[in-house]
Design brief:
Number of strands: 4
Helix content: 40-55%
Number of helices: 7
Strand content: 15-25%
Shape: globular
Order of helices and strands: HHEEEHHHHHE
Structural class: alpha+beta
Radius of gyration: 16 Å
Length: 153
């Protein structure tokens, strides 16, 4: 695939991610990308729970999560919110290790702070459920692996 084909593919994903009001949302982007992960056999299900959480001070970040049917895998997703809304080609054509590191470290920090009870669960969003579960040693022990997925357009 050449750069022009990638730009067209990105544009089609962005268009498909827009809601009925033609507004691009993170949730719409996740609803397009997670089925693609299923097609690639990286996840077992299209299901996920939206759980937008971002703490600028600590860098903790998460967009969504899913626990597989056997409850052995916790899958955490981070959508690259900054790149999602950029239209400058140079901002999304060139991938920078620092961008991916920021997102992976943000998800790691979210798990770490949740386990250590340094994030207060909020009932108003999906991250509150995940935070409260990660604070429970019994719930945490059921996972064999925590998988982190960065989704970037």
């Amino acid at each position: 695939m050449n750069i022009d084909e990638l730009i067209k593919y990105r544009s089609s994903i962005i268009e498909e991610s827009k809601n009925e009001d033609k507004t691009l949302t993170e949730e719409g982007f996740l609803s397009v990308c997670i089925p693609l992960l299923l097609d690639a056999k990286l996840v077992d299900s299209e299901d996920y729970s939206l759980s937008r959480f971002e703490d600028h001070e600590s860098g903790a970040f998460v967009s969504a999560f899913h626990v597989n049917e056997s409850s052995e895998r916790l899958q955490i997703f981070a959508a690259d919110y900054e790149k999602l809304f950029t239209s400058k080609e140079e901002d999304f054509i060139v991938s920078r290790k620092t961008d991916y590191d920021r997102l992976f470290k943000g998800m790691e920090k979210f798990v770490e702070l949740s386990v250590k009870n340094h994030i207060e669960p909020q009932d108003s969003d999906g991250s509150g459920f995940l935070v409260s579960k990660l604070q429970s040693p019994d719930y945490l022990d059921q996972f064999e692996v925590i998988e982190l997925f960065v989704l970037t357009p």
